[in-house]
């Protein structure tokens, strides 16, 4: 027995609260969102070694360019892409969580070109009947994997497949993935419009900060 | 924490036997705790879902900063901050008369009468807890809802064990008084 038992009625109130089932669906959504957030964070932050490598590569390219300029060669023969791609492949950094809705968002002006995928990622088979949460998660995981491997088109295909599912419960997550896939596919305007619509319809969603980071300034209203 | 520091730290934590958390282990092991704490702090069902998701998105971004073995402390501290924001947002919605979210419980196999009883019990618990100072609410949630022992409560609250014990004693005393005043609304009382 506890030294300071709270009254019997008090104890029953807490017991009733303990018996409330933890929603499995919400757990799975949180897990998916957390994986996505982690993936974004890992892509956004380069470890020092990689950053140093990038700087060294940039210095080498710059040095080579200066050398060729000195020799009167055309600078345009040298592509700076290998060094720059480290930066361009990163996703936009999500804004801080306390950003006001009306505050201007950073524009997404650097869009990485769609990278060719080594192996096509095929979406799971279409289910015409009511879809289970695991089916939805499978489709969204396929889209996410495609996106992380640089194949924005495959991600969009997987999301098209998701959109054909019935009774979706993870529309918000799917919309955010589509925004990111459109951005990666070079369709920054479409990504911005969709992100603006998402923010307007879901101002209190936990995903809203991420959506805002894709809104191009001047396109906030999604027009 | 820098990349190098986190690497060094993960090496030392591996030596001590604690394993660095993964996203999956963190969510699966701590979700229930976080969700119940958020509910205990008065968040409606859907608000608690959203807030818990936010807690784990933050934790995922800061995974390298979570000291192995202190996962619960991390998500608890984050949940308290997220809950505050959610409560402020809810207050704004109420001011604008736009709060249409109901505290609908998860569908369950309980019969309607049981569900109604649990809903009334929950409403009364939230109402009573809300009348206590926040620091008392928190220790009561940890002790009575999560059934944690005082040393663990002290660790989560960042308090000396003696302070946590005395805070819990005061909290229980105040809660008892509140319950006594609400006895007429006993949600478990059967209709005559």
First CA to last CA of chain B: what distance? 63 Å
Order of secondary-structure elements of chain A = HHHHHHHHH
What is the mean predicted local confidence, pLDDT of chain B?
86
Number of strands of chain A: 0
Task: Return the structural class of chain A.
Answer: mainly alpha
Proportion in helices of chain B: 55-70%
The number of helices of chain B is 8
| Low-pLDDT segments of chain A | 72-119
The number of helical runs of chain A is: 9
Beta-strand proportion of chain A? under 5%
Radius of gyration from the alpha-carbon trace of chain A, in angstroms = 23 Å
Structure described in brief:
The complex is a heterodimer of chains A (223) and B (192). Chain A has 223 residues and is mainly alpha-helical.
Structure description:
- The complex is a heterodimer of chains A (223) and B (192).
- Chain A is built from 9 helices and no strands.
- Chain A has 223 residues and is mainly alpha-helical.
- The longest helix of chain A has 23 residues, at 48-70.
- In chain A, 35% of the residues are buried.
- Chain B is 69% helix and 0% strand.
- Chain B has helices spanning 3-15, 23-40, 45-61, 71-95, 112-130, 134-145, 150-157, 161-181.
- The interface between A and B is large, with 37 and 58 residues.
Throw out a few tags for this protein:
heterodimer; A: 223 residues; mainly alpha; 9 helices; B: 192 residues; 69% helix; disordered N terminus
Question: What's the SSE blueprint?
Answer:
The complex is a heterodimer of chains A (223) and B (192).
Chain A: H1 8-19, H2 24-44, H3 48-70, H4 81-88, H5 133-148, H6 152-163, H7 171-184, H8 188-201, H9 208-212
Chain B: H1 3-15, H2 23-40, H3 45-61, H4 71-95, H5 112-130, H6 134-145, H7 150-157, H8 161-181
């Amino acid at each position: 027995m506890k030294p300071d038992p709270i009254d019997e009625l008090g104890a029953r109130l807490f017991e009733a609260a303990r018996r409330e089932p933890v929603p499995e669906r919400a757990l799975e959504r949180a897990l998916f969102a957390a994986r996505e957030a982690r993936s974004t964070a890992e892509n956004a932050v380069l470890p020092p070694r990689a950053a140093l490598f990038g700087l060294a590569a940039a210095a080498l390219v710059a040095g080579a360019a200066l050398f060729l300029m000195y020799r009167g060669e055309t600078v345009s023969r040298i592509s700076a892409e290998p060094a720059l791609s480290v930066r361009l492949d990163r996703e936009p950094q999500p804004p801080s969580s306390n950003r006001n809705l009306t505050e201007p968002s950073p524009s997404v002006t650097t869009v990485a070109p769609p990278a060719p995928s080594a192996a096509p990622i095929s979406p799971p088979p279409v289910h015409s009947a009511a879809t289970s949460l695991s089916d939805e998660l499978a489709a969204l995981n396929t889209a996410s994997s495609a996106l992380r491997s640089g194949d924005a088109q495959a991600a969009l295909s997987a999301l098209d497949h998701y959109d054909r599912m019935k009774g979706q419960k993870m529309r918000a997550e799917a919309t955010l993935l589509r925004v990111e896939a459109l951005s990666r596919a070079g369709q920054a305007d479409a990504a911005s419009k969709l992100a603006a619509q998402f923010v307007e319809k879901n101002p209190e969603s936990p995903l809203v900060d991420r959506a805002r980071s894709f809104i191009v300034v001047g396109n906030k209203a999604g027009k | 924490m820098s990349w190098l520091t986190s690497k060094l730290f993960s090496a030392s934590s591996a030596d001590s036997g604690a394993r660095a958390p993964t996203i999956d282990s963190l969510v699966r092991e701590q979700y229930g705790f976080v969700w119940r704490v958020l509910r205990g702090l008065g968040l409606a069902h859907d608000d608690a879902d959203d807030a818990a998701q936010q807690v784990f998105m933050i934790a995922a971004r800061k995974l390298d900063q979570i000291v192995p073995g202190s996962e619960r402390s991390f998500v608890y501290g984050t949940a308290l901050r997220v809950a505050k924001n959610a409560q402020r947002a809810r207050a704004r919605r109420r001011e604008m008369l736009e709060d249409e979210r109901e505290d609908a419980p998860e569908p369950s196999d309980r019969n309607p009468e049981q569900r109604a009883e649990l809903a009334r019990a929950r409403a009364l618990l939230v109402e009573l807890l809300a009348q206590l100072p926040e620091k008392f609410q928190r220790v009561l949630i940890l002790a009575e809802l999560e059934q944690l022992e005082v040393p663990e409560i002290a660790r989560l609250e960042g308090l000396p064990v003696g302070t946590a014990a005395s805070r819990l004693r005061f909290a229980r005393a105040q809660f008892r008084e509140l319950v006594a005043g609400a006895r007429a609304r006993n949600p478990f009382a059967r209709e005559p």
